[in-house]
Amino acid sequence: MTGDRRQTILVVDDVPDNIDVLSGLLRPHYRVRAATSGERALQIARTLPHPDLILLDIMMPGMDGYQVCRELKADPRTRRLPVIFITARSEVEDEAKGLALGAVDYITKPVSPPIVLARVRTQLALYDQNRRLERKVRERTAELVTTRLEIIRRLGRAAEFKDNETGLHVIRMSHYTRLLAEALGSDAEWVDLLFNAAPMHDIGKIGIPDRILLKPGPLDQEEWVEMRRHPQYGADIIGEHDSALLRLSREIALNHHERWNGSGYPAGLRETAIPLSARIVAVADVFDALTTRRPYKRAWTTEQAADYMREQSGIQFDPELVTLFDRILPQILEVRSRYEESG
């Protein structure tokens, strides 16, 4: 039916007659889709638009209903979909197992039409209520999240204003960081966290005296000792928190000057002992620093900076990330052009 706004129920059973019975019962009230195997059920459930509820048989050849439920609950796309087991198994142990796997209800065969309709109606109402509550929570926390992210960005820019007039460095390198993490195939939620944490990488510069940070020439040994304290200063400024965003910000601030071969600071970590977040930020940070004018140097050309990144593969940088950097360089340059320094 074109424009049919009714809720959709997916009926899963390897016996076509059972599907016909349930479909006939449900179709006057809901849209119905059917699958005769666990594999097909998962395929339908993962396809947009998702069904609103799944009626799932247990005893099926190949992938049984228990395994289908496990797969549904393990997948972020389908884990919230309500599942009702409909099965000939009537032992208490069977029902307990189904509910433990995340099913919301358990109906035994032969089914009673009034019971099926009542249970389906109840679970759909609860599912709708949960979605409305989740939407309200998201709306009410959106302002708080936005404020927190803005504070983090502003703190990151505060550090950059000490040696960069516009603060555009943190914007560019955050976008470079996102591009690298996406190219690596990282989880979208983690990529977003990384993008928002990256601006805090040099917050520790707030603790470095201007006479060192803005010195228009090479630092002497004593000045380098002080400069190398800024990762720890940054970690101390951010502190220890339960927030995933602040934990990642601290991890980056503390470790983004570590080097793949172990010659970095402050801890001399090497290779994969360096957190992935810091390895990604290091590539993004250094490329942008090289191609930007600073008080102590001229801006390098893109070719010079890219050559340096390749030369430092396996020395300063994670080789896999340098390879990815080369692959996405056109996208990097698009970001650079969008947020180019003026003057």
UniProtKB/TrEMBL annotation:
Q: Which GO terms describe its biological process?
A: phosphorelay signal transduction system
- Keywords on record: Phosphoprotein
Q: Where is the Response regulatory domain?
A: 8-124
Q: Which InterPro entries match?
A: CheY-like_superfamily, Cyclic_di-GMP/3'3'-cGAMP_PDE, HD/PDEase_dom, HD_GYP_dom, Sig_transdc_resp-reg_receiver
Q: Which residues carry this modification: 4-aspartylphosphate?
A: 57
State the signal peptide span.
none
**Kinase: is it a keyword of this entry?**
no
Q: Which residues form the HD-GYP domain?
A: 144-341
Q: Which GO terms describe its molecular function?
A: phosphoric diester hydrolase activity
Enumerate the PANTHER family for this protein. CYCLIC DI-GMP PHOSPHODIESTERASE TM_0186-RELATED, CYCLIC DI-GMP PHOSPHODIESTERASE VC_1348-RELATED
What is the protein named?
Two-component system response regulator
